[in-house]
Design brief:
By secondary structure, this protein is α/β, with parallel strands linked by helices. It has a domain of 155 residues: P-loop containing nucleotide triphosphate hydrolases (Rossmann fold, 3-Layer(aba) Sandwich). The chain is built from eleven helices and ten strands. Strands 6-7-8-3-9-10 form a six-stranded mixed sheet, sandwiched between helices. Strands 2-1-4-5 form a four-stranded antiparallel sheet, with helices on one face. It is globular.
């Protein structure tokens, strides 16, 4: 479904994606783990065209997307939903208006159809009678659910999640994890989930890829990652303070000084 080959992206002096390659199969949930700044969110933005790579290939359902113009990309974006880390809701719009935004702006649908789709999408994420609430009246977990409902309204084939369980309590995080699994099982969507939460990654993922220095250094089933012999993977998944990751950072910071 998604095939990325030899992707490069540089911001100033920083190489964020460094010859990165990754494959996501149709119907698979792929978790991407790694420290902040290793290119996880940058990759998602490259896939949806919010950022363009410096070089390399991104194919979605067999179509090379790096050469698409903005109009062509807009059409592709109707098949790809992205759940942003903060929810990215419009503060001045109600929940119902937020969820139905894409339908109202880009699809020729009557008001009743939009209203029904909004209601059904909110029900899928476990929210009822919230259409008239404003984002400021929602908890962090509810905002993430509303963001997911907005994506589901589009009936996408692919969903990209950026830190879906960050900044919420463990019970809400468990509910979000359950929703991600439901989306895979019920709607057969293909998903990429960027996360620092290893409990979440082990629970939701069919496979896990770890990014380090702009590259994929490990990619396998959750159990394979859990028992990986790679010292960088082991330090990250167990959260050890000492190891090759922090040794590398000490060298970098020492050089800067």
């Amino acid at each position: 479904m998604i095939e990325i080959r030899n992707l490069y992206k540089v911001f100033g002096p920083q190489m964020v994606l460094n010859n990165l390659s990754l494959t996501v199969r149709r119907g698979e949930t792929k978790a991407i783990i790694g420290r902040s700044g290793v290119g996880k969110s940058v990759l998602l933005k490259n896939i949806v065209g919010l950022i363009r790579p410096d070089s390399g290939s991104i194919k979605v359902n067999g179509v090379e997307v790096t050469n698409l113009n903005e109009k062509e990309y807009d059409k592709l974006r109707m098949e790809i939903g992205m759940v942003f880390q903060s929810g990215a809701l419009f503060d001045s719009m109600s929940v119902g208006e937020n969820v139905g935004f894409v339908l109202n702006e880009f699809m020729n649908l009557d008001k009743k159809t939009v209203k029904d789709k909004v209601h059904d999408s909110l029900a899928l994420v476990g929210l009822k009678d919230v259409e008239n609430l404003m984002p400021s009246q929602l908890s962090g977990g509810m905002k993430k659910r509303v963001s997911l409902a907005r994506v589901l309204c589009m009936e996408p084939h692919i969903i990209l999640y950026d830190e879906p369980t960050s900044e919420i309590d463990p019970i809400t995080a468990a509910a979000i994890n359950h929703l991600i699994i439901e989306m895979r099982d019920k709607l057969k969507v293909t998903s990429i989930v960027v996360t620092h939460d290893m409990n979440s990654a082990y629970k939701i993922a069919d496979s896990i890829a770890m990014f380090y220095k702009g590259q994929v250094i490990a990619d396998g089933k959750p159990d394979e990652i859990k028992h990986s012999k790679h010292p960088v993977v082991q330090q990250f998944i167990h959260g050890h303070a000492h190891g090759p990751i922090t040794e590398d950072e000490s060298l970098i910071f020492g050089h800067v000084k």
